[in-house]
């Protein structure tokens, strides 16, 4: 049975009555197979699963899609019930921010200013602040985040380490459509032609990863493969797994962000840069 609570008092009462290890999956709702993979991992690795559903205003810029972001609570509850979630916490804005916008926020540091942070100023202050708040109120042993939002996952790991938050962060691989498109709640904004154009992101990443395996420049190959007649590139960059400078050899990460019409999408893949022999 999946219980639904909307207030922190109800959550605290339910949490106090919970025994065993607790895993949390934080979402903004509009649940899809990517979220299901997180819920499945939580179900497998924890005794009890809490899902949170909250479209966090703090992480949206003034010209972003906060107002039109899909809100599908009934369908989301059905997904959670089907996935064996024990408790859903779906607060409204005043419940999460009773004093209005918080004066004190988590500072993501220099990594928060790059890539997504450069295109979405204040984004990671908003993300890390709400993630920390949700960790405080749910008090999980484990928290699950998708690799699809790789910079977010990296910064959450870093926050937990730097601020001594007592939780283990688990990364979950990106779930894709059969043609390669990474699942995202924002995919539902795409018109059919845009849905095709959105493949430009995953195709570029695939080309980059294949090039790396052959000892060629992954980022350059991805740039060539990116179809800029169909999508407008924001960034495409090879980094090391911690989002530092690209490795001369060994594991790396290739990350892309692009606009398809008025929809901004992100994606990334692991790449392996072979050592020159
Ligand atoms: N395709 C996916 N595979 C694995 N995890 C995912 C996928 N899409 C989202 N997630 C993870 O689900 C969690 C909640 O993400 P969120 O609710 O923002 O969904 P989203 O699809 O990323 O939405 P948006 O389209 O707004 O970026 C995050 O940890 C995110 O990384
Ligand atoms: C982690 C998160 C739920 C914080 O609002 C959000 O950024 C998301 O859905 O990835
Ligand atoms: N999926 C990460 C949250 C966001 O894009 O706002």
Automatic annotation (TrEMBL):
GO terms for cellular component: cytosol. ATP binds at residues 28-35, 146-149, 175, 183-186. Keywords: ATP-binding, Cytoplasm, Ligase, Nucleotide-binding, Pantothenate biosynthesis. GO terms for biological process: pantothenate biosynthetic process. Beta-alanine binds at residue 59. One of its GO terms (molecular function) is ATP binding. Homodimer. NCBIfam families: cyt_tran_rel (TIGR00125), panC (TIGR00018). This is Pantothenate synthetase. It comes from Phytohabitans suffuscus. The gene is panC.
